[in-house]
């Protein structure tokens, strides 16, 4: 027959049992916490690794490109103040200034130029902010890029200066600004055409093109430079029935 357990023995057994249960509970809690921490870390690691940190130049650059394209002048100024790379380029080679120029966001363009943006960086289409401004008749941006050091001798994918497409498209004020800045009025592009030739051949000879042709005459453009086929601007104007243009050219001594 078993002997009755003493009071002291029962107390010791109870103490040991309590300690064991406490240890088991602590171990269980620790394991659960570690599991949750591991799960959280596993879930967060991929996103954290991919996400740029605050102030990351790449992130700031992408934000600047977007803000410039949207014409958000406040965001552009804030990003520039935060050291966003002013001449960052997108996958097509566009800079923030190029994007602002394309949409004629004048205040954005001004902020970018004031922070050192280059108006001469060319994208994959060989457009720069300066060249694009000339081609699109963005007069204010043309003036700003010139004042901030645009390369007046730079050429587009057709080998033409900013003045040639400005004359072709009838952007009178832009053409006048480019002429006043000193762009070569006799530059010949890859098609063999000068700005005068394009103002005749690629236009209807209307009032704006007449004014551009007069501006070229006043700037002492060579009126007799022929195209690759030996045809002069005067001959082209006659062929197209541009009577006013013919009169302007003849009065200036064109042959």
From TrEMBL:
Domain of life where this protein originates: Bacteria
Keyword set, alphabetical order: ANK repeat, Signal
Pfam families reported for this sequence: Ank_2 (PF12796)
Gene3D superfamilies: Ankyrin repeat-containing domain (1.25.40.20)
Signal peptide: 1-25
ANK repeats: 92-124, 158-190
Record-linked PANTHER family: REPEAT PROTEIN, PUTATIVE-RELATED (PTHR44207:SF2), SURFACE ANTIGEN BSPA-LIKE-RELATED (PTHR44207)
This protein's name: Ankyrin
Native organism: Comamonas thiooxydans
């Amino acid at each position: 027959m078993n002997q009755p357990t003493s009071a002291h023995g029962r107390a010791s057994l109870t103490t040991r049992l309590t300690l064991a249960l406490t240890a088991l509970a602590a171990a269980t809690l620790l394991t659960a916490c570690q599991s949750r921490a591991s799960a959280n870390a596993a879930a967060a690691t991929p996103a954290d690794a991919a996400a740029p940190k605050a102030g990351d130049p790449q992130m700031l650059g992408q934000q600047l490109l977007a803000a410039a394209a949207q014409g958000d002048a406040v965001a552009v100024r804030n990003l520039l103040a935060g050291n966003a790379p002013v001449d960052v380029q997108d996958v097509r080679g566009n800079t923030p200034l190029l994007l602002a120029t394309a949409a004629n966001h004048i205040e954005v363009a001004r902020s970018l130029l004031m922070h050192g943006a280059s108006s001469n960086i060319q994208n994959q289409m060989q457009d720069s902010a300066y060249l694009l401004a000339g081609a699109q008749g963005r007069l204010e941006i043309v003036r700003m890029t010139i004042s901030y050091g645009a390369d007046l001798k730079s050429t587009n994918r057709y080998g033409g200066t900013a003045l040639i497409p400005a004359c072709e498209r009838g952007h009178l004020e832009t053409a006048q600004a480019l002429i006043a800045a000193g762009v070569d009025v006799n530059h010949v592009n890859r098609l063999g055409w000068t700005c005068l030739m394009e103002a005749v051949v690629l236009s209807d000879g209307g009032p704006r093109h007449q004014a551009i042709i007069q501006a070229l005459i006043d700037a002492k453009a060579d009126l007799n430079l022929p195209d690759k086929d030996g045809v002069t601007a005067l001959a082209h104007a006659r062929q197209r029935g541009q009577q006013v243009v013919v009169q302007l050219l003849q009065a200036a001594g064109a042959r």
